[in-house]
Design a protein that fits this description.
The protein is an all-alpha fold. The chain is built from 18 helices and no strands. It has one domain. The longest helix is centred in the first third of the chain and has 38 residues, at 46-83.
């Protein structure tokens, strides 16, 4: 059956696999770096793992901010690339850069000025606050570099230059792992910095990646890393970007902050729960590599098709993408199941933390399917068709009216066991399935949002 679908939709499958493979490599590298952080800190101590895990929640929130901004840029750029309008793509890059740099600078200043207060949101453990605060101070440089890199690479991916983005990530992630070892363990005469070494390694690798992006930009004739584009004025594009990006950004912030509340809940249930969850996040990242790669590649491809005004082909491609999503979701669960014995053998945690780790991993075997379907629909298809508002409303209601209140109720009012709390938190993805799937079937998400004669009008106004 699956082979028949490939034969009948050869063009779609050819294009999707060309896009998805480099994205999977990027996601794999990202997961490998997170894994390396935890594995190396495993030899430093459980407190270091827990502190970095909690402090990294701000990195996760910032990642979702950049992902939301990148999504808005990608949606517009993918459709305008299908339309053949490169000047619009340049202007969209500049608009996205304004927002990403502003938010990155805000996070960097907070990490430098009030890191202890930032850590107290997640834990009241004095040791974790001290270690986490030093981590946040050092990671602040990374935030600014990251704000520039993510937008530029998102624009390159939207026009099909996925391999360039992959090579940049290979450079950054390889350096990150190497420098992690150097600064965590004090190799080659470097100081032995433990948890703070992770932050220094990450910041240095992102700085080098930024310099590499500048080098790529110099060699390209079409899409450059040009900060002057931040000042290009186009009311039409700015309005479209806000209309698409703000709901996507709000969606990702709402979801990521809500997801971080899970860490707040677990953080107040003890360091054993936090340490176990740190390993679970790493393993789950490997399980979701295929799913997130499929969602990103599918969004780009279908955005290109919509920009070409081939709406019926876009619907047909969306159906094929959903078939692939179910397959990748199942594979993701099997990957988590396969990694579980290895994780249990190699984690240096307390007996209680090991107990939590075992059952948290088993819960994630099925949880990844919920993430796969929702990510492909909300962050892939819906956004590619210009329908980012639905995801914002759906995820906000799901996280803040259901999952987070349920978690706090279970943990602090009913005082249920840690595993019961974790199980309830992991029902969030499945609760919204009926509404998300109904939206997909309605076809209301599918729209061509490009404009004609965009810069002729802009130049006349100027």
């Amino acid at each position: 059956m699956f082979q028949k679908a490939i034969r009948e939709n050869r063009e779609f499958y050819s294009r999707i696999f060309k896009l998805v493979l480099p994205i999977i490599i990027q996601n794999l590298l990202s997961a490998a770096v997170s894994s390396a952080d935890v594995v190396m800190l495993n030899y430093v101590g459980q407190s270091s793992i827990s502190a970095v895990s909690l402090a990294s929640q701000y990195t996760n929130i910032l990642f979702m901010v950049f992902y939301g901004l990148g999504t808005g840029a990608t949606v517009l750029c993918a459709q305008y690339y299908g339309k053949g309008d490169m000047r619009a793509i340049q202007a969209v890059e500049g608009i996205a850069m304004r927002f990403s740099l502003g938010i990155a600078l805000l996070f960097a200043l907070l990490s430098l000025a009030v890191p202890e207060q930032m850590m107290r949101i997640f834990t009241n453990d004095t040791e974790l606050i001290e270690v986490g605060a030093s981590y946040l101070r050092c990671i602040s440089v990374c935030y600014v570099c990251w704000g520039i890199i993510e937008v530029y690479l998102a624009v390159l991916r939207s026009i099909g230059c996925v391999m360039v983005s992959t090579l940049m990530n290979i450079l950054a992630f390889s350096l990150n792992v190497f420098l992690n070892a150097v600064f965590i363990f004090g190799l080659f005469g470097a100081p032995k910095l433990g948890a703070m070494g992770v932050a220094i390694a990450t910041s240095l690798s992102r700085l080098i990646e930024l310099l590499a992006c500048v080098g790529v930009s110099v060699s390209r004739k079409d899409i450059k890393l040009n900060l002057r584009w931040m000042f290009v004025k186009s009311k039409e594009l700015y309005s479209d970007f806000l209309r698409l990006s703000m709901p996507a950004l709000g969606n990702d912030i709402s979801w990521s902050v809500g997801f971080s509340m899970y860490s707040v809940i677990l953080g107040h249930l003890g360091t054993d729960a936090v340490a176990a969850n740190s390993f679970v996040v790493v393993v789950r990242n490997f399980g979701t590599i295929l799913c997130f790669g499929m969602a990103s590649a599918g969004g780009i491809l279908i955005g290109n098709v919509i920009g070409e005004n081939r709406l019926e082909d876009a619907k047909k491609n969306a159906r094929e993408l959903m078939k692939l999503t179910v397959v990748t979701g199942a594979l993701g669960g099997l990957i988590i199941l396969a990694i579980t014995p290895f994780a249990l053998r190699n984690a240096s945690l307390s007996d209680q933390a090991m107990h939590y780790l075992k059952y948290m991993l088993l819960i994630n075997v099925y949880y990844v399917m919920g993430m796969a379907v929702n990510t492909t629909l909300i962050a892939g298809l819906f956004r590619a068709g210009g329908d980012s508002k639905f995801g914002f409303v759906c995820d906000t209601i799901d996280m803040w009216c259901y999952a987070v209140p349920l978690g706090f109720l279970a943990a602090f009012v009913l005082r249920l066991p840690v595993m019961a709390v974790y199980f309830l938190l992991c029902t969030d993805e499945f609760v919204k399935w009926p509404w998300v799937i109904r939206r997909y079937r309605s076809g209301k998400w599918l729209k061509n949002i490009t404009r004609d004669n965009l810069f002729d009008e802009t130049e006349k106004k100027a």
